[in-house]
Amino acid sequence: MKTYGIIGNPLGHSFSKQYFTEKFQTEKIDAQFLNFEIPKIEEIQDIIKNNPTLKGLCVTIPYKEEVMTYLDEIDPLAKEIGAVNSIQIRRKGGQIHLKGYNTDIYGFGESLSDFIKEEKPKALILGTGGASKAVATALKNQSIDFISVSRKQIESSISYQDLSKDIISKHKLIINCTPLGTFPKTDTCPDLNYNLISQDHFLYDLVYNPSTTLFMSKGIEQGSKTHNGLKMLHLQAEKSWEIWNE
Ligand SMILES: NC(=O)c1ccc[n+]([C@@H]2O[C@H](COP(=O)([O-])OP(=O)(O)OC[C@H]3O[C@@H](n4cnc5c(N)ncnc54)[C@H](OP(=O)(O)O)[C@@H]3O)[C@@H](O)[C@H]2O)c1
Fold first, then answer.
1. Does domain 2-102 sit in CATH 3.40.50.10860?
2. Which of 58, 86, 185, 212 makes an SS bond possible with 101, Cβ 3.0 to 4.6 Å?
3. What are φ and ψ of residue 85, in 5° steps?
């Protein structure tokens, strides 16, 4: 039986185990999916050694960046983003080769194209964490101009206070890459003047639990189009599956 898994800490509410376990059942795949909740990234070495049937790993918070030093090869896109969320494990004649990928960029890019169709609105990326980097690279690949918005005073971004009427009206795509609105804190959302949102805006929330976040509800009230992070999550998981079994 083949083995797949996820490394991260904590993994209590991880989506991956449930997703892949259901996939194996419905598609009658002889495989298991294991959670490896590890307090230190170094433990990846023992996991690889002690699980000889392991073919692929998801990587989640807080190891998407740290894990890169343990890999033999990194896909150029993951290198550009600076984060790996999927590892392909190849074993040949006692040799092990670990290659890191970032499938968030694929999940976001594909789901965004479905959402905005042929339009190329300028974008605001809210938050500057790991996911925002994959989003920024996906936007660059689709030739969509964007500005990052952060609580921090950093040169590469503007602040929430800078989000004037003019900026909001010129940036019709707004992407929430912060955890605000995630269950159980569902009454939180990014600090925008939502009255400035119009029916021409697209609000994309990377958060998927709940399926309609407060950020989305506020957009819907203004007549804007909205999208949650569930499709991205499924697309990145399926892309990992493809990579692990190449
Ligand atoms: N749908 C999917 O497939 C998918 C994939 C990856 C991630 N996600 C979701 O995307 C969200 C971000 O993930 P991540 O890995 O990038 O997280 P992260 O590394 O923790 O970064 C989140 C960023 O959000 C901002 N932020 C954090 N707390 C905030 C607060 N209280 N108020 C305002 N801004 C805040 C921060 O940016 P500043 O310090 O610059 O303000 C932070 O860097 C999470 O909810 C995650 O579940 C979804």
1. yes
2. 86
3. -120, 5
Question: Are domains 2-102 and 104-230 of this chain identical in fold?
Answer: yes
Note the pLDDT of residue 12: 83
With a cut of 70, which residues of the chain have pLDDT below it?
none
Exactly one of 64, 99, 172, 218 is catalytic; name it: 64
Supply the pLDDT for residue 68.
98
CA angle 82, 87, 91 (to 5 degrees): 135
Determine if ligand 1 sits within 6 Å of the CB of residue 107.
Answer: yes
**Which atom of ligand 1 lies at the shortest distance from residue 154's CA?**
40
- pLDDT of 180: 98
Write down the domain spans for the chain: 2-102, 104-230
Nearest CA to ligand 1 atom 7: 131
Q: Nearest CA to 89 among 138, 133, 132, 55? A: 55
Average pLDDT taken over every residue of the chain: 97
Instruction: Kindly list the distances between the CA atom of residue 36 and the CA atoms of 16, 43, 220, in Å, as whole numbers in the listed order.
Output: 12, 9, 39
Identify the pLDDT of residue 152.
96
Residue-wise pLDDT for 79-115, tens only, equals 999 999 999 999 998 899 999 999 999 999 999 999 9
- Number of the ligand 1 atom closest to the C-alpha atom of 178: 24
- Give the homologous superfamily in CATH for domain 104-230: NAD(P)-binding Rossmann-like Domain (3.40.50.720)
104 lines ligand 1 (CB under 6 A): yes
Model pTM greater than 0.85?
Answer: yes
Ligand 1 in reach of 229 Cβ (< 6 A): yes
d(CA 35, CA 8): 8
Atom 45 in ligand 1: residue holding the nearest Cα: 179
